[in-house]
Specification:
It comes from Rubrivivax albus. One of its GO terms (cellular component) is membrane. GO terms for molecular function: catalytic activity. It contains 12 helices and 10 strands. It is of the alpha/beta class and 254 residues long. Strands 1, 2, 3, 4, 5, 6, 7, 8, 9 and 10 form a 10-stranded mixed sheet that branches. It starts with a helix and ends with a helix. Bound molecules: guanosine-5'-monophosphate (2 copies), manganese (II) ion and sodium ion. The site of one guanosine-5'-monophosphate (G) has 13 residues, from β6. The site of one guanosine-5'-monophosphate has 13 residues, from β2, α3 and β4.
Length: 254
């Protein structure tokens, strides 16, 4: 059977999982939130990363039901963690272009947040520049509706699209997530360093929070601290973890 046919059944069969990668304060490693990343516990192929099947889902229209499952599961998990005492915890989910253009999406987001009794700003939606370029009017309407719903919006993979500045202007995001390709060669690459500093400058001027992605080393952590206040995500801190391991990590740091 093709991956496409199997994926159609995987949602109903309960084969999807969410893993959670901590988003931390780089001064002390305090966990501020997490990014939910979808996995597929495939009965024969093992645990598949999103890069193995998100494109497939996009190509066959399954990304909308898959995205709804992610939204629902993430909100339920976040509500459980809030109830267990991690009250300020934030959670980000990734949103694909087709999902954003789906007419019912903003209403589903608002309903999920309400149903799970979450503060609206506890949920963050990550949109890439490419996602936002997809379709003028529908995208603008969706962004306006999501703003009205009160959830937080982040530009993901910042700097990797065709029009990073246009994206900032249009989306007016709460956060920019600096793509890990700009972080990888720090502090050695003077060019990447200048670009990262320019991104921090833009973020400051526009009052947008910064998350630096792909922080893998102590040298990354320290160099980025010199750029200004921000949050970090990356293997220096933790990989994306199953829910129980993420909860255990929260407890050890509390
Ligand atoms: O964690 P991983 O390497 O599998 O992620 C690969 C890519 O898949 C990343 O670009 C990530 O943003 C994307 N991705 C992960 N989870 C989701 C999801 O739930 N929905 C969408 N649309 N993309 C996701
Ligand atoms: O596009 P997005 O930023 O959503 O992608 C998230 C992806 O980045 C996930 O696949 C996650 O596994 C991966 N990732 C997270 N932290 C690191 C890191 O420190 N180094 C590298 N190389 N990849 C990372
Ligand atoms: Mn992301
Ligand atoms: Na990213």
């Amino acid at each position: 059977r093709t991956l496409e046919r199997e994926l159609a059944d995987a949602i109903d069969a309960g084969q999807l999982r969410l893993h959670y990668q901590p988003v931390v304060d780089p001064h002390d490693g305090h966990i501020v939130g997490a990014e939910a990343l979808v996995r597929w516990a495939h009965p024969e192929r093992g645990l598949l990363g999103a890069d193995r099947f998100i494109d497939v889902a996009e190509g066959c229209g399954l990304v909308v039901p898959l995205g709804s499952w992610v939204l629902e599961t993430a909100c339920a998990q976040l509500a459980a963690w809030h109830a267990a005492g991690a009250e300020g915890l934030q959670l980000a989910i990734n949103v694909s272009a087709l999902q954003l253009r789906d007419e019912g999406f903003p209403a589903r987001v608002a309903a999920a947040v309400r149903r799970h009794g979450l503060p609206r700003h506890a949920l963050e939606l990550e949109l890439t520049e490419v996602t936002l370029l997809a379709d003028g009017d529908a995208t603008h309407r969706a962004v306006a509706a999501l703003r009205a719903a009160g959830v937080r919006l982040a530009v993901d993979d910042f700097g990797c699209g065709y029009s990073s500045l246009a994206t900032l202007k249009m989306l007016q995001p709460d956060r920019m997530k600096i793509d890990r390709s700009f972080v990888r060669d720090l502090p050695h690459s003077a060019g990447d360093g200048a670009l990262v500093q320019a991104m921090f400058g833009m973020a400051r001027a526009l009052d947008v929070e910064v998350v630096a992605e792909g922080v893998e080393t102590e040298a990354h952590r320290v160099w980025l601290l010199g750029c200004g206040p921000h949050l970090q995500q990356g293997w220096l801190w933790a990989r994306a973890l199953p829910a129980d391991e993420f909860a255990a990590l929260l407890l050890t740091l509390a």
